[in-house]
Protein backbone atom coordinates (compact mmCIF):
# COMPACT_ATOMS: atom_id res chain seq x y z
CA UNK A 1 0.00 0.00 0.00
CA UNK A 2 2.84 2.40 0.85
CA UNK A 3 4.44 1.75 -2.54
CA UNK A 4 1.16 2.43 -4.33
CA UNK A 5 0.70 5.66 -2.34
CA UNK A 6 4.21 6.76 -3.29
CA UNK A 7 3.45 5.96 -6.94
CA UNK A 8 0.35 8.17 -6.88
CA UNK A 9 2.37 10.93 -5.25
CA UNK A 10 4.99 10.71 -7.99
CA UNK A 11 2.41 10.63 -10.81
CA UNK A 12 0.54 13.54 -9.24
CA UNK A 13 3.50 15.84 -9.94
CA UNK A 14 4.43 14.41 -13.34
CA UNK A 15 1.07 15.40 -14.87
CA UNK A 16 1.28 19.15 -14.25
CA UNK A 17 4.94 19.27 -15.25
CA UNK A 18 4.25 17.61 -18.60
CA UNK A 19 1.12 19.74 -19.04
CA UNK A 20 3.12 22.90 -18.44
CA UNK A 21 5.69 21.84 -21.05
CA UNK A 22 2.90 21.18 -23.57
CA UNK A 23 1.32 24.54 -22.83
CA UNK A 24 4.63 26.35 -23.29
CA UNK A 25 4.97 24.74 -26.72
CA UNK A 26 1.38 25.61 -27.68
CA UNK A 27 1.65 29.19 -26.43
CA UNK A 28 4.90 29.64 -28.39
CA UNK A 29 2.96 28.71 -31.52
CA UNK A 30 -0.10 30.78 -30.61
CA UNK A 31 1.85 33.95 -29.78
CA UNK A 32 4.37 33.87 -32.63
CA UNK A 33 3.79 36.88 -34.92
CA UNK A 34 3.88 34.73 -38.07
CA UNK A 35 1.25 32.28 -36.80
CA UNK A 36 -1.93 32.29 -38.85
CA UNK A 37 -5.34 32.91 -37.35
CA UNK A 38 -6.51 29.27 -37.47
CA UNK A 39 -3.25 28.03 -35.93
CA UNK A 40 -3.49 30.65 -33.17
CA UNK A 41 -7.08 29.70 -32.34
CA UNK A 42 -6.25 25.98 -32.45
CA UNK A 43 -3.13 26.33 -30.27
CA UNK A 44 -5.02 28.50 -27.76
CA UNK A 45 -7.89 26.02 -27.52
CA UNK A 46 -5.50 23.08 -27.21
CA UNK A 47 -3.70 24.93 -24.41
CA UNK A 48 -7.03 25.27 -22.61
CA UNK A 49 -7.77 21.56 -23.10
CA UNK A 50 -4.30 20.54 -21.84
CA UNK A 51 -4.85 22.74 -18.78
CA UNK A 52 -8.17 21.04 -18.01
CA UNK A 53 -6.69 17.58 -18.53
CA UNK A 54 -3.71 18.36 -16.29
CA UNK A 55 -5.89 19.75 -13.48
CA UNK A 56 -8.23 16.74 -13.68
CA UNK A 57 -5.35 14.25 -13.57
CA UNK A 58 -3.64 16.12 -10.72
CA UNK A 59 -6.89 16.06 -8.73
CA UNK A 60 -7.48 12.36 -9.42
CA UNK A 61 -3.95 11.32 -8.42
CA UNK A 62 -4.21 13.56 -5.33
CA UNK A 63 -7.48 11.88 -4.34
CA UNK A 64 -6.03 8.38 -4.71
CA UNK A 65 -2.84 9.31 -2.85
CA UNK A 66 -4.90 10.85 -0.04
CA UNK A 67 -7.11 7.74 0.26
CA UNK A 68 -4.05 5.49 0.57
CA UNK A 69 -2.45 7.88 3.08
CA UNK A 70 -5.55 7.84 5.26
CA UNK A 71 -5.69 4.04 5.11
CA UNK A 72 -2.02 3.78 6.12
CA UNK A 73 -2.45 6.30 8.96
CA UNK A 74 -5.44 4.37 10.28
CA UNK A 75 -3.52 1.08 10.08
CA UNK A 76 -0.64 2.58 12.06
CA UNK A 77 -2.99 4.10 14.62
CA UNK A 78 -5.06 0.95 15.22
CA UNK A 79 -1.99 -1.32 15.41
CA UNK A 80 -0.07 1.01 17.72
CA UNK A 81 2.67 1.51 15.14
CA UNK A 82 4.80 4.64 14.77
CA UNK A 83 2.95 7.28 12.73
CA UNK A 84 5.37 7.35 9.79
CA UNK A 85 2.55 8.07 7.31
CA UNK A 86 1.12 11.01 9.26
CA UNK A 87 0.58 14.14 7.15
CA UNK A 88 3.82 15.99 6.41
CA UNK A 89 2.44 19.16 8.00
CA UNK A 90 1.93 17.33 11.30
CA UNK A 91 5.40 15.76 11.15
CA UNK A 92 6.97 19.19 10.50
CA UNK A 93 4.98 20.80 13.32
CA UNK A 94 5.99 17.99 15.70
CA UNK A 95 9.62 18.57 14.70
CA UNK A 96 9.32 22.27 15.58
CA UNK A 97 9.16 23.45 11.97
CA UNK A 98 6.00 25.56 11.60
CA UNK A 99 4.88 26.56 8.11
CA UNK A 100 5.95 30.06 7.15
CA UNK A 101 5.89 32.06 3.94
CA UNK A 102 5.29 30.20 0.71
CA UNK A 103 5.54 26.82 2.45
CA UNK A 104 2.16 27.26 4.12
CA UNK A 105 0.34 27.08 0.75
CA UNK A 106 -0.71 23.61 -0.39
CA UNK A 107 1.29 22.74 -3.50
CA UNK A 108 -1.52 20.95 -5.29
CA UNK A 109 -3.70 24.06 -4.91
CA UNK A 110 -0.93 26.36 -6.16
CA UNK A 111 -0.33 24.14 -9.19
CA UNK A 112 -4.05 23.84 -9.89
CA UNK A 113 -4.41 27.63 -9.83
CA UNK A 114 -1.36 28.04 -12.07
CA UNK A 115 -2.65 25.52 -14.60
CA UNK A 116 -6.05 27.24 -14.62
CA UNK A 117 -4.32 30.58 -15.35
CA UNK A 118 -2.51 28.96 -18.28
CA UNK A 119 -5.81 27.57 -19.52
CA UNK A 120 -7.40 31.02 -19.31
CA UNK A 121 -4.42 32.48 -21.18
CA UNK A 122 -4.97 29.85 -23.87
CA UNK A 123 -8.64 30.77 -24.07
CA UNK A 124 -7.79 34.48 -24.31
CA UNK A 125 -5.27 33.74 -27.07
CA UNK A 126 -7.87 31.73 -28.98
CA UNK A 127 -10.42 34.54 -28.64
CA UNK A 128 -7.91 37.15 -29.83
CA UNK A 129 -7.03 34.92 -32.79
CA UNK A 130 -10.69 34.45 -33.62
CA UNK A 131 -11.62 38.15 -33.54
CA UNK A 132 -8.49 39.53 -35.21
CA UNK A 133 -8.39 39.93 -38.76
Automatic annotation (TrEMBL):
Write the record's keywords in alphabetical order, separated by commas. Membrane, Transmembrane, Transmembrane helix
- UniProt keyword Membrane, yes or no: yes
TM stretches of this protein: 12-32, 38-59, 110-131
The highest taxon in the source lineage is Bacteria
| Protein name as it appears in the record | Uncharacterized protein
> What is the species listed in this Swiss-Prot or TrEMBL entry?
Streptomyces cyaneochromogenes
